[in-house]
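ugh ok so i messed up the first submission bc i forgot one of the chains. this is the corrected input, ALL of the components this time, i swear. 231 residues overall. if the numbers dont match what u have on ur side tell me asap before i send this to the collaborators (the ones from the other lab, u know who)
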Amino acid sequence: DAMVIQNPRYQVTQFGKPVTLSCSQTLNHNVMYWYQQKSSQAPKLLFHYYDKDFNNEADTPDNFQSRRPNTSFCFLDIRSPGLGDAAMYLCATSRDYGDAKNIQYFGAGTRLSVL
Amino acid sequence: AQKITQTQPGMFVQEKEAVTLDCTYDTSDPSYGLFWYKQPSSGEMIFLIYQGSYDQQNATEGRYSLNFQKARKSANLVISASQLGDSAMYFCAMRGLGDSWGKLQFGAGTQVVVTP
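and heres the new structure output, hopefully the right one now
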């Protein structure tokens, strides 16, 4: 059974139209991460939550926001998507930060297209 | 700053043969973890194997093994007896203990195509 679930798998939105991607987990992990992965590139961390504590990467555009209403769910909001935001968005979770063996488990991703 | 380098953008391997994917890293952290992930064309990142910097033995998980050479700062992934389902992008990643937020640094990836 999938432990990190992302919905939808494919999302098409219009230029400038707000869009929300969702992620849920059944692992009861403390940390949830959002990555952006453009074609043929490595994933790039946007931000993460440790419990309800939000941590933004310095180079994440303001256009990207996130919410974590409870342990299980985390949302990625793109306020005004541009053509450059078309990408795969990956959600990941990990139990803690505590040691170097901090395995991140990923969902299947949401592939976002912007028209 | 930490850096992960994967020098092989792509490779072909015949079914049932072994393949080695190269990964070198650079870090000043005395304690760190090294990870390999597989990403099929469907997009999901699948965790394969982990090696800790203080682990004395090379990690193994089924057909996956990690050739860890700490002095050379390399952590190559070996896939034995390749299967068609092994065709995917493979990412090497690391996390240093100094990355207090658990941030993973990824390499550029190696695309593996397994042929019959």
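quick check: The longest strand of chain A covers residues 87-94. that seems consistent at least. The radius of gyration of chain A is 13 Å.
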